[in-house]
Amino acid sequence: MISQEVHRLGAFSSILDPSANAPAFKDADRKIVASFNDRVALRKLAQETNLLSYEFENIPAEILQELESDYEIPQGVQPLLDSQDRLREKENARNNGLKTTEYIAIEPNDQESLRQAIDKFGYPAILKTRTLGYDGHGQVIIKKESDLPKTKDLLQVPCILEKFLNFDYECSLILVRSVQTTIHFPIAQNIHKDGILDLSIVPCPHLSEALNNRIINDCSKFMERCGYYGILAIELFVKGEDYYFNEMAPRPHNSGHYTMDGCSTNQFRELSRFLLGQELETPKLIVPTIMKNILGEDLESLNDLPKNENISIHLYGKEERRPKRKMGHINFLNLTLEDYHKYYAKYFKN
Ligand code: ADP
Ligand code: MG
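A: This is the predicted complex of the input protein with magnesium ion.
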């Protein structure tokens, strides 16, 4: 999707991906099949391009740091580094003006500290791996004492224990910052199912104008204070008129896929404009949008969906289909949440 926008803006793209049939290669002008920690391959990518960007968090930051002295990486390595470790990520958020839920770092296999932390926070609490977690993978909810044995596998690696927040809802904000300006997309409400994003709803239904403005203001300042440039997606929990930083990603975000149909410009285009040094456009919501993720098990349901201009289907072209794997998304335009639920009951089998 970044390549498609880059082309529209008059540039070319080279993509590095470990999988020979990565969907991103379909729109790439050049491709390199190599692992993300292949120093030689990453250097080759840097040599054949004018600038480097990333849209995956777990690229070894130290390799990019080596490249940074010789090649241009407009987003820098810092936002990537800060987002790769949940402990660092949350400390950084707190140090730069954003509140988080309470958390404590737990060393590998340190069941004693885990117990003490639970005594402090109470049940339920969530144990999360510090690195490499996504879509609810790498976390366990501890609801009661008898759940403790379930943490054994996870606690082979460094973790954090988080106090469970009984939030009203979750939302996310996507910002793009250039030297001249910071733009943002409308805040989406996010609904997760089994730890995986299911729906993003825009406009965010219960968000007051005052809180909306406060979030945008604080998160823009956060980017400035951290010295981040480029795109940043921030996931938040909302409780009453309070909000808490959960996590961030310095790349286009699943909860921003609604912008492809719902906004005057989308997250991939504004990232591309930033990378190419072009002026950013202030995004406007043109139509209320509900984005639904399509997982492996949902693909059949697509055949039955009515075809009309208010249902925009995006498939990613992933060759292997698996249950719970994100295969694409649908943007439902101008549909009330109530009507969405009717569609869901009628057309979706899962
Ligand atoms: P990832 O998206 O990387 O899997 P998250 O930290 O975003 O990890 O957690 C996934 C989901 O689990 C969140 O979107 C939220 O629904 C729930 N969750 C995570 N942390 C908490 C918490 N402290 N309190 C309540 N729910 C949480
Ligand atoms: Mg998340």
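The mean pLDDT is 96. The pocket of magnesium ion (ligand 2) is lined by residues 235, 247 (CB under 6 Å).
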